[in-house]
Amino acid sequence: MIDELLGEARERMDASVQATHNQFQTVRTGRASPTILDRVNVDYYGAVTPLKQLATINVPEARLITVQPYDATSIKIIEKAIMESDVGLTPSNDGKIIRLSVPELNEERRRDLVKVAGRIAEDGRISIRNVRRDIMQDLKSLKDDGDVGADDERRGEQELQKLTDAKIADLDALLKGKEEEILEV
């Protein structure tokens, strides 16, 4: 029973690490990448819709991203959504395609992006700690119900803490890699 709870904790923590990794990919570095627009949502006819569902996003050059809306009439609202997002890119359109040129990052913007990555990592850590808290409560209720003894509960808590520490270390490694990528000139 404790092993099942630990297996559930491992799956949920792995999902948190993966979600954080996906969020890191949306943080802009010096190179153009279509994933930096993943966080952009557009108010499309009253429904908040992810940009990638409304347009084709391409990277034709190392410092250029193009956004081609499926519906040409939505170009203005897509452009507005990009402007209002925290991506830090200024769109320009020719009536059919929105072009986003990715400028070279200055030192101040790099530091801001490192802070954004740090916040994303902290959200991931909080998610992992929430999983730990939930499983700890489950372990405690197993002991209170008499399904397991105090020693088994303690062993389960220790295993859970080791798992938590390992997953947080994974997040820290991802953060370190992202910071190096951002600060790379």
Describe the protein in words.
- This protein has 4 helices and 6 strands, in the order H-E-E-E-E-H-E-E-H-H.
- With 185 residues, it is α+β, with helices and mostly antiparallel strands.
- The protein folds into 2 domains: 2-25 and 106-183, Orthogonal Bundle (Topoisomerase I, Chain A, domain 4), CATH 1.10.132; 34-101, Gyrase A, domain 2 (2-Layer Sandwich).
- Helix 1 (2-25) packs antiparallel against helix 3 and helix 3 (107-145) packs antiparallel against helix 4.
- The mean pLDDT is 89.
Quick summary of this structure?
By secondary structure, this protein is α+β, with helices and mostly antiparallel strands.
Please write out the topology:
Layout: H1 2-25, E1 41-44, E2 47-50, E3 55-61, E4 64-69, H2 75-84, E5 91-93, E6 98-101, H3 107-145, H4 150-183
Antiparallel strand pairs: 1-2, 3-4, 4-6, 5-6
Query: In total, how many domains does the architecture comprise?
Result: 2
Characterize the quaternary organization of these chains.
single chain
- SSE pattern: HEEEEHEEHH
**Stretches with pLDDT under 50, minimum 5 residues:** none
Biggest sheet: strands, sense, closure? Answer: 4 strands, antiparallel
Inertia-based shape: elongated
Give the helix/strand class: alpha+beta
What is the average of the pLDDT values? 89
CA-atom Rg in angstroms: 22 Å
Strand order, biggest sheet? 3-4-6-5
Stated plainly, the CATH topology of the largest domain is called: Topoisomerase I, Chain A, domain 4
What is the β-strand count? 6
First-residue to last-residue Cα separation: 51 Å
Overall helicity: 55-70%
As a percent range, the share of strand residues is 15-25%
**CATH fourth-tier homologous superfamily of the largest domain:** Ribosome-recycling factor
